[in-house]
Task: inverse folding
């Protein structure tokens, strides 16, 4: 079975659910699926992926579906860390000094996107710096 | 009288046979001349059949006008583009090939150093997980809870790795 066949349901769902800039490419035994969509569709696709390949063990799919492409400056973001507070740093990387913290489930504002991993945010207390996007969830209207 | 009649018959028969022979010959010539100049639609069908049988040429389309075949679509790489045009040029009736195939961009894979730094940032909050990066492949180790793994894998896939290998990771 080819990778396209294995993940046909996933690709079909991505196509019909309105994933923009959808790219599906196979290279050296790995299928790459890229695109932009809403948080809900992203969740749906990841659930489907886990159903086809339990625990993602095969390592034959890299799914880079972003749900934050449409998030703009000034957007409100919820701090969704696993347990701890979110570090606010001087620069984009964990090697940069911590200059502030945002509490779990606190709402902060997006100032600027440095890259896909690091955004400049500002808390209501006026603390501003770089935080890891993994722990920031846009509040969908 | 009878003899003469039968010899006349033989002559007639011979005449008919030779006439038939000529007719068949003329027909054969006209068919073969037809074959040496296939119609555009037939050339197109032949090319499409050849393209469909060749996995390298998936994603390409063809149009034919007065024997000139124009191929379009997306090829995997430069080699595939050349191979595709070469194959089409060998099909009977094709006078020339216009190659409008675009080469699909390669999948962008992050370089190891920035990728390793980004992976370290990503797994920092997932205690018990280790990772190494070699040639774009993120190899994971340690242990993780399933709900946390469901959160981590999308983050790792977003870092543009070549592959995420969880074979050494214990998921419970």
Result:
């Amino acid at each position: 079975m080819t990778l396209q066949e294995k993940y046909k349901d996933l690709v079909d769902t991505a196509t019909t659910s309105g994933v923009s800039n959808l790219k599906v490419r196979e290279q050296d035994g790995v299928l790459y699926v890229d695109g932009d969509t809403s948080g809900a569709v992203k969740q749906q696709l990841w659930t489907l992926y886990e159903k086809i390949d339990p625990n993602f063990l095969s390592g034959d799919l890299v799914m880079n579906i972003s749900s934050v492409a449409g998030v703009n400056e000034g957007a409100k973001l919820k701090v969704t860390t696993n347990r701890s507070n979110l570090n606010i740093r001087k620069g984009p990387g964990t090697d940069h000094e911590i200059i502030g913290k945002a509490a779990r489930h606190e709402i902060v504002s997006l100032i600027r996107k440095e890259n896909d991993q690091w955004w400049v945010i500002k808390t209501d207390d006026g603390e501003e710096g770089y935080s890891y996007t993994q722990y920031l969830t846009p509040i969908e209207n | 009288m009878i003899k003469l009649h039968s010899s006349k018959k033989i002559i007639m028969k011979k005449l008919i046979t030779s006439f038939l022979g000529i007719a068949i010959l003329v027909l054969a010539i006209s068919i073969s001349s037809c074959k040496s100049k296939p119609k555009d639609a037939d050339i197109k069908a032949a090319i499409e059949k050849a393209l469909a049988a060749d996995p390298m040429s998936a994603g390409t389309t063809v149009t034919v006008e007065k024997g000139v075949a124009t191929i379009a679509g997306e090829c995997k790489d430069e080699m595939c583009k050349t191979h595709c045009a070469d194959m089409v040029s060998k099909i009977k009736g094709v006078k020339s090939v216009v190659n409008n195939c675009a080469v699909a961009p390669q999948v962008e894979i992050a370089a190891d150093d920035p990728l390793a730094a980004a992976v370290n940032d990503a797994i920092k909050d997932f205690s018990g997980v280790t990772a190494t990066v070699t040639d774009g492949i993120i190899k994971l180790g340690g242990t993780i809870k399933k709900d946390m793994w469901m959160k981590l894998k999308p983050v790792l896939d977003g870092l543009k790795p070549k592959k995420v290998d969880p074979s050494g990771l214990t998921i419970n």
Remarks:
- The two ends of chain A are 41 Å apart (CA to CA).
- Chain A has two domains: 3-66, 76-138.
- The first helix of chain A runs from residue 3 to 6.
